[in-house]
Each structure stands twice: as structure tokens, then as C-alpha cells.
Amino acid sequence: MQPLTAGRARRGLTEPLLPVAALALLAVAAAALDATVLCWTSVGALAGFALSGSV
């Protein structure tokens, strides 16, 4: 196993998979609970994240 370097740690922390997965799960959970405002907020966060160039 390779030692954890600053570059490897930074790459792991900035990987968009974790925030996108968390926001997608939040959107699905909010939709299932009929929490309309929270659902659209999380969908908007996903759209903003995608449009910011982070993905």
C-alpha cells in the first residue's frame, strides 16, 4: 500500500462522487417523504454543483 501523500488526499477529498451521491440520496429521500422544498433544494444544489465546473 502506498503512503498517503498530500496530493492523493486532496484528490480524494475533492472527488465529486461523494457530494453528488449525498445530494442525490437527499433528493430521493425528500421526495419519498413528500418534503417538496427540501427535494427541490437538493436538486438545485446538484444542478449548481454541475454547472460550477466541479464535476
Task: Describe how the helices and strands are arranged.
Blueprint: H1 6-13, H2 17-32, H3 36-51
Helix pairs in contact: 2-3
Commentary on this structure:
The longest helix has 16 residues. By secondary structure, the chain is mainly alpha-helical. Helix 2 runs antiparallel to helix 3. The mean pLDDT is 79. The protein has 3 helices and no strands. It has a domain of 36 residues. It starts with 5 loop residues before the first helix and ends with a helix.
List keywords for this structure.
single chain, 55 residues, mainly alpha, 3 helices, 73% helix
Number of strands: 0
Class by SSE composition: mainly alpha
Assign a percent range to the helix content: over 70%
Basic shape: elongated
- If helices are DSSP runs of H or I spanning 4 or more residues, what is the number of helices? 3
Task: Summarize it.
The chain is mainly alpha-helical and 55 residues long. It is built from 3 helices and no strands. It has helices at residues 6-13, 17-32, 36-51.
